[in-house]
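Technical annex, item 7. During the second reporting period the consortium partners agreed on a shared format for inverse folding records so that results from different sites could be compared directly. Each record opens with the tokenized structure and is followed by the designed sequence. A conforming record, contributed by the partner at site C, is shown below for reference.
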């Protein structure tokens, strides 16, 4: 094993251990010592790789964000590549797969929630990782809504983005509900209702109806 390989292995172990500890204990309650014990890494290696606990948090968020974005992208590709389905049904399939992704890999959003409640100040590197995911999520939803005909082709781009942002806020709330009461919260069902509600509301608006 080369020094580079060993270093990569240490970094991976620390990120995995820290992600689990941050998600279960919170950032403030997780010490470098706890991360060291859970990862088996030497203190000198941890400080060399990350510099500080804030550096570890930023690395955890960047890693989780990359994994989440890739999973969301793969879900979109699978859903939108079903020619037998209409555009609106493909969008529904995407939302269902996104619900599954939230259920299967909740670490990133859980960390976001913990940070938003626990910390008033988040270092810039961590903020960039968080903002990247949310920006990409809004862009993807806006594009999918347009491709699926959910919004009028003549609609202003700002209106489509606003709808996407409102949907993301719904995702946040649904995720919180699933964390608080997982036995009675069906994310697939909730996302299906979101899809039906948006489709019905936009269709009515396009026909000249009122909310």
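Designed sequence (site C submission):
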């Amino acid at each position: 094993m080369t020094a580079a390989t060993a270093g990569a292995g240490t970094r991976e172990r620390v990120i995995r251990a820290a992600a689990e500890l941050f998600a279960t204990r919170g950032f403030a309650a997780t010490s470098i010592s706890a991360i060291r014990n859970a990862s088996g890494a030497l203190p000198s290696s941890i400080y060399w790789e990350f510099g500080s606990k804030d550096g570890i948090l930023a690395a955890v968020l960047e890693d989780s964000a990359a994994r989440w974005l890739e999973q969301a992208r793969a879900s979109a590709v699978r859903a939108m590549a079903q020619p037998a389905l209409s555009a609106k049904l493909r969008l529904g399939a995407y939302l269902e797969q996104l619900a599954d992704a939230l259920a299967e890999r909740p670490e990133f959003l859980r960390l976001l929630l913990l940070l938003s409640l626990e910390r008033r100040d988040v270092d810039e590197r961590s903020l960039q990782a968080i903002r990247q995911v949310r920006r990409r999520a809004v862009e993807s939803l806006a594009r999918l809504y347009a491709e699926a005909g959910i919004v009028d082709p003549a609609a202003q781009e700002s209106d489509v983005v606003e709808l996407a942002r409102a949907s993301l806020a719904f995702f946040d709330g649904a995720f919180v509900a699933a964390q608080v009461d997982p036995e009675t919260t069906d994310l697939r069902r909730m996302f299906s209702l979101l899809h039906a509600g948006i489709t019905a509301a936009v269709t009515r608006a396009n026909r000249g109806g009122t909310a």
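The longest helix spans residues 53-80. The radius of gyration is 20 Å. All partners now use this format for quarterly exchanges.
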